[in-house]
Amino acid sequence: MIAKLRGLLDSTAADSAVIDVNGVGYLVHASSKTLGALGPTGSPATLHIETQVREDAIQLFGFLAEDERDWFRLLLSVQGVGGRVALAILSVLSPAEVQHAIAAKDAASVARANGVGPKLAARIINELKDKAGTIATGPGIAAPISSPKGAVADTLSALANLGFRPVDASRAVAEAQAELGEGASVNELLRVALRKSAR
C-alpha cells in the first residue's frame, strides 16, 4: 500500500493532482483545500496517501496533513459516505471544523458539501459523535465542546442569537474557554469568543 508520496506537482484538475515521483505520475484525488495549498506546477509536493483497492480500480487519496487523512478514514466509516463525498466534506470544512460541527450537532454545516443531503449529514453527526474525540486536534486548536452547561451553554445561545453558525459558535467558545479557564463568566466568554471569531 502507498502511504506517502514525495515528488513534483505535474498537474492539477478540479478534484485531483498528478504527482511525478521519479518519472512516474500518480493520480491523487484530494480536497479543494489540499489542491489549493499544493503550489504551482513543478513545485515539490508531499502528500499522505490513503489507498483504496477495489475489483475494478485502485484509487489514491492525498492529504497535506495526517489529521485530514484521519478524518477522511473516519468519514468513510459512515454508511453512504464514499471517497468523493468525504473529500467534498473536507473541501468545505477543515478537520477542526468537522470536529466542532459534530460536537455541536451542526448537520447544516456538514450538509454544505456537494453530495451531502440533510439525512446523510444527520447520519454522519450521529455515527461519529462518539468517535470524534479519538482524533487529536492540531496544535493551538481547542477541543470542541461536547456537552455545554452553565456559562458555556449561555454563551453558545447568545452567539446563536447573533447569527453565528453552531460550528463557528462552538469553536469560538471552546477557544475562549481554553484561554479563560473553567470558571469564566458569560460576559467574559462572550467578549473573548467575539474577539476570536473576528480574526
TrEMBL record:
Annotated region described as Domain III, given as residue ranges: 153-199
Domain I: annotated segments: 1-64
Chief location category: cytoplasm
Xref: Gene3D superfamilies: 5' to 3' exonuclease, C-terminal subdomain (1.10.150.20), DNA helicase RuvA subunit, C-terminal domain (1.10.8.10), Nucleic acid-binding proteins (2.40.50.140)
Stored CDD domains: UBA_RuvA_C
Signal peptide interval: none
Oligomeric form and interacting partners: Homotetramer. Forms an RuvA(8)-RuvB(12)-Holliday junction (HJ) complex. HJ DNA is sandwiched between 2 RuvA tetramers; dsDNA enters through RuvA and exits via RuvB. An RuvB hexamer assembles on each DNA strand where it exits the tetramer. Each RuvB hexamer is contacted by two RuvA subunits (via domain III) on 2 adjacent RuvB subunits; this complex drives branch migration. In the full resolvosome a probable DNA-RuvA(4)-RuvB(12)-RuvC(2) complex forms which resolves the HJ.
Protein name in the entry: Holliday junction branch migration complex subunit RuvA
Species name: Glacieibacterium arshaanense
